[in-house]
User: What shape does this take?
Amino acid sequence: MKKTVVLLVSTMILGVSASAMADSNRWNQDHKDRYDNRYEHRYDHREQPRWSNGDRGHHYGQRISLKRGERLPSEFRSNRYVISNYRTHRLYEPPRGYNWMQVQGKYVLVDSKYRVLRVA
Assistant: This one.
């Protein structure tokens, strides 16, 4: 009789502890799922964020090829690229109506409509 009671009590204790462990594991799993879903966007690199320049045309660091007769891209058509002291850059004097411009490390001779005459 004693063995039956001890066996019954130990079985009940084992059952209660097993269900408690399963319950705590389920809570951790639910918590982990919620955490993963909440911060999922941080690690998903398949689509570009809205604030990224990845899908725009000319972004920083993109190299362009300049050839004679082509027009200079619009992002380089400002006075900040014009070289006024051409002799310090070892360039010859530009003809009337032309300017030397420095674009991505290259010297470009362009006319008033930003057509490339020479790339040095």
User: Anything to note?
Assistant: Strands lie at 82-83, 99-103, 106-110, 116-119.
